[in-house]
Amino acid sequence: MTLQIPVILLGANFYTALGAIRTLGRRGIPVYALDYHFPTAYALASRYVTRKILCPNINTDEAGLKDFLMKLGEEFSERPVLMATADNYALLISRYADQLSRYFIFPDNKPNLLEKIIDKKGLALLAKEHGLRIPKTFIVDQGSDLDAIVLETPYPCIIKPALSHKFVSVFRQKCLFAENRAKLLAALNTARRSELEVMVQEVIPGFDDLMYVFDVYVDRQGRATHTFSAQKLRQFPINFGSSTLTHHLYDHELIELGLEYIGRLGYRGYGEIEFKKHPSTGKFYLIEINARLSTLNVLFDKCGVEFTYIMYKDLTGDPLPGFHLAEDRPWAFWHAYEDLISIIAYLKKGELTPGQILKPWLSHHKAHAVWAADDIKPLFAFILLIMGKAGRKLLRLVRRSP
User: Fold this and answer.
1) Per-residue pLDDT at 171 exceeds 70
2) CA-CA distances (angstroms) from residue 267 to 3, 112, 255, 274, 284?
3) How many structural domains are present in the chain?
4) 254 is in which domain, residue-wise?
5) Mind listing the pLDDT tens digit for each residue in 320-369?
6) Angle, nearest 10°, between helix axes 15-26 and 307-315?
7) Same domain, residue pair 146 and 253
8) Coil, strand, or helix at residue 216?
9) At a CB cut-off of 8 Å and minimum separation 6, what does 72 contact?
10) Going by fewer Cβ within 10 Å, which terminus of the chain is more open, N or C?
11) CA distance 150 to 181
């Protein structure tokens, strides 16, 4: 039996990593999973992890992690595949591509392309350069005239970070929402005090089910060999969050637009574009591009488009035949825990009725974010993690009470 080239997976504290680990592990591919904090890295509990590796903290010591990876790479006689499960890891690979490519295999993108895509400011500038349709956007830095931006912005609007992971660490949410000028100005002042570069962007109207995703794999020759489209049904947090219930839905217009945008950028490897469809015009607006593995990995697998495996095979020199999924499959990605929280929020805001909540849930087979019958330990690790967070929160409340 020929030994498979291993995968070095960066980050294991989210179901993005768990999905990738299972995809690769079920194919018999060795997975070396790295994380800087084992207690919260519940994906490490998977039976498909070949080796768990404690590494430097990407958030505080990026250069140290780069050096750590290069030393790790020396252990292999043949270069393993390097994959990122989060934006900060994708940025690290891009920034040190020349050094890391001596030890690992990963998609060969143009210098600084991933930095521009992941940085929301860079994406806005890329969109303008390449003619990609995005919501009206203002880039806000320390020298910006906040009063002028407040006057010119359409409402409602959101304040988005240039780099999501840094913004979330400060504000504990992916964006700030403003319905009027006063709220926008207050939010901008808060962002400025945090010394984070942000953007102000108009909100395309409509419920969360107007959010769509286009997924693609572009091989080393620049050919889009696999495509997939899906529609979000619910998100966490609601209105501006990650998928909690998302089903496969073939949309020819979306696929064609996604292929056009990816082609203009000259992107390589696996990528995902999030769009929002305007309820009046029907036009798709680019919201963001994910240049790392997707949270929807388990949905891809159930629908027969295993993007993680597709990328692995291409990078290791044995590409799979192309496949463009053009018929609807009855599967929906479902994150039970986060979806329950979102359902409560939707009901409180009056955005969904009980019937509207149950109908899409009952009409699909479920691709579970955490649960898997052949790999149950990560579910228990996830439950213990949630219980620990709840316990610590309760303890803080008790200590604060008079």
Assistant:
1) no
2) 30, 11, 15, 15, 20
3) 3
4) 208-368
5) 999 999 999 999 999 999 999 999 999 999 999 999 999 999 999 999 99
6) 60
7) no
8) strand
9) 8, 32, 53, 103
10) C
11) 6
